[in-house]
UniProtKB/TrEMBL annotation:
Pfam family, one: Oxidored_q2
Swiss-Prot/TrEMBL keywords: Cell membrane, Membrane, Transmembrane, Transmembrane helix
Protein name: NADH-ubiquinone oxidoreductase chain 4L
Membrane protein topology class: Multi-pass membrane protein
Length: 111
C-alpha cells in the first residue's frame, strides 16, 4: 500500500475521531474540515494515473483535470457550509451562552 494512502486514511480518521469525541461546536467544525480535506486528498490520489490518455508525449505523469475541478467545487461548498455552521454557532452561543453540545442539549430539553 502506498504511503500516501496511509497518510490520507490517517487524516480522515483523525477528523472522524475529533467529530465523534469533541463536545465543543468550534472543535467539531474544525475536525469536520479536517475530515473533508482528507476525503479530498483521497480523491486527488485516485485521480492520479500514469497511463492516462493525453496528447503530449513528453509528460511523465498526468492527473485527470475533471476530478480536480469537481474537488475544487467540493472545497468551495465545504467553505460555504463552514461559514453557515459558524453563523449557527454564533446564534446558539448568543442564545444559550455556551458552545458545549451537552449544555445546549440540556437547555433545549428544559424549554
Amino acid at each position: 500500500m502506498n504511503i500516501f494512502y496511509i497518510l490520507t486514511l490517517s487524516v480522515i480518521l483523525i477528523g472522524l475521531f475529533g467529530i465523534i469525541v469533541k463536545k465543543d461546536l468550534i472543535l467539531i467544525f474544525i475536525n469536520l474540515g479536517v475530515f473533508q480535506e482528507g476525503i479530498v486528498l483521497f480523491f486527488v490520489l485516485l485521480a492520479y494515473d500514469e497511463n492516462s490518455p493525453i496528447i503530449i508525449t513528453h509528460l511523465q505523469g498526468y492527473a485527470d483535470p475533471l476530478i480536480h475541478s469537481f474537488l475544487l467545487t467540493v472545497i468551495v461548498i465545504g467553505f460555504a457550509n463552514l461559514a453557515l455552521m459558524l453563523v449557527f454557532a454564533m446564534i446558539l452561543s448568543s442564545k444559550f451562552k455556551t458552545l458545549e453540545v451537552d449544555e445546549i442539549e440540556k437547555k433545549v430539553k428544559k424549554q
